[in-house]
Every structure is written in C-alpha cells, then in structure tokens.
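Hi Y.,

Following your request, here is the sequence exactly as I used it, all 226 residues.
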Amino acid sequence: MDKKQDPIIRTRQARESDRKAIAATIANAFKYLFDTITKENAKVEALLGEPDVIDIDMFSVLEVPKEGVKHPKKDSDWEIASVAGISGRRARAVTLDWKKIRKHLSLPTSIAVRTIAALDTNRPGTVPGTGLVEYIAVSEKYRGKGTGFAEETVRYAIENSMYEDFILWVKPNNDVAQKIYDNIGFIDTGKETARKVSAGLGKLKILQVEKTGLKQNKRTFERPCG
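Below is the corresponding structure, written out as tokens. Let me know if you'd prefer a different format.
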C-alpha cells in the first residue's frame, strides 16, 4: 500500500487581502458562541470584516491548495484553512467599538456584544511581554478531521511573534483543544480567568508556554519551495 502523501500547506503572516477570509473563519468556528447572542451569523461575519476590527498584523494563517490544484504556484491557488491571533497588553487582535457593532446588529444584540467585548476583546490584556494566543479557528471544511492545522498555525504564530512568553485560555472540559495545546508545549498554570470571559464559557483555564519551550511537531507537511 502506498504511503499517504503529506498534506501541502504554507504558513505566513496575514495580509490585508485576507481580512474577509479571516472574519469568515472566525465567525464560523465560534458560531456556537455567537449563537448565544444572535443567530445572524452573516452579520457577525460582516462586523468582524469591518476595517480596523481585526488587526491583520497580529494574525497568522495556514493555507492549503484549493480543490483541484495539485501544484500551487500563485497566491490564487491557495485558500485559508486556519488562523490564529496573538494579542499584547496594549494591542488587541480584535477590537470592537460601539459604532461598528450597531452598524450590523440590533440594539439588544449590540448591548450583549458590547458587554462581552468589554470583558474579552477590549480588556487590558496580559502582563507586559506576554502574548495572548486567541481566535484560533479552523475553517469548517477542515475542522474535526485531525488535520493538525490548528496546532501548526499556533506554532507558526508563536515562532514568528515578537513575544517570548505566551498564554491562552481553554475550557476545562475541552479535551480536544487541550491535547492540541499540550502537543505545542503549553502547560497548565493551575490558574483560571478572574471572571467569566464570554457568554456560555464561564471561567477558563490559563495555559502557558515559552517560545523556547515549544515542542517539535510530530506531524509532517509538504511545503512548496520558494
């Protein structure tokens, strides 16, 4: 039997042209959370796609060849399969303000989103010199299939970040996510977020890793030359 071919991927810093794709990936991956506020996922996606809501410079993406493309040579041959953001103490990967929220959502929904934003996207952030890894999202097409894309995206984001120390939050009962983060090198700090982060999530476990403590990826991928 022939050995299964390693998937072809490329990881890189996000670009302005990726804004809509990143917004769509996040909106879909976190639909279970947004659904506690509104069922209008398309409006959430439009909100995230607004200029200055997502800070492109704080995101990394992993791409795979589009269906039918065996030998990708140009940018249009690729599609985004997963994303990850890293926020700092003063700068956020995603920032929501009232005007942008109201532009897309009803008043009751806007109030709910603003409440979450005050706790989540607009909070002061982490301790100085520490990056907060967040908005880890895999597109629906590749989610739950054991591709390893989330792990590889987070690893790339950390390796290419200005920070040396990183934390992230995870639900205590999310065994799948915790396994991914363990593979990367994150360890449980034994601490929780001080208060509920977002609707339906409750308090989250805080995991931590240093850049020098990253574990080598056990999976193999094929990467294009050049």
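The chain has a mean pLDDT of 87.

Thanks again,
Q.
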